[in-house]
Structures are given as C-alpha cells and as structure tokens.
Design goal:
By secondary structure, this protein is α+β, with helices and mostly antiparallel strands. The chain has 3 helices and 2 strands. It has helices spanning about 5-20, 25-35, 40-55, and strands at about 55-60, 65-70.
Length: about 80
C-alpha cells in the first residue's frame, strides 16, 4: 500500500491523539483550516479514512453519524 502520509494528515493525527474524543469531518476540516490547509469537509473525510486504513484511527458510530477516534494499540496493551 502506498504511503499516504502528508503534513496535514500528520498534524491532524497528532491533534486527535493529543485531544482525544470523537472527530468528524467538520471538526477535522475546522482544525485543518486553522493550520492554513483549507477547510474542505471532503478532504477531511479523505484524511480521516486514510488514517483508518493506516491503522491509526478507527471509525465509530456517534449520534447516527460516522466519527473517528484513536485506534487501540495493536498489541492490546497501553500505549
């Protein structure tokens, strides 16, 4: 699988890890815009899904919508 790391995705993942909680495309787009990357919800959705494919995030259902949160460690232990 090709590497899908970009500075925007790296910054987004670091922020999700730092703050925790559930992240949707609006929250991700707002954060990306605050860094000067623009605020496209479609791009945010692509970024979140790419981070799921890499195993960094998991997709969950929150209030009837898709949300994303930090994936548990692969070994099941504490990180």
């Amino acid at each position: 699988m090709p590497d899908t790391t970009t500075p925007r995705r790296t910054a987004l993942l670091e922020e999700i890890r730092r703050t925790g909680g559930n992240w949707g495309r609006v929250r991700a787009a707002t954060y990306s815009a605050s860094l000067g990357y623009g605020g496209s919800r479609d791009t945010a959705r692509q970024d979140l899904r790419a981070l799921v494919r890499r195993g960094d995030l998991v997709q969950i259902e929150a209030r009837g919508r898709h949300a994303y949160t930090v994936a548990p460690p692969a070994d099941g232990g504490e990180s």
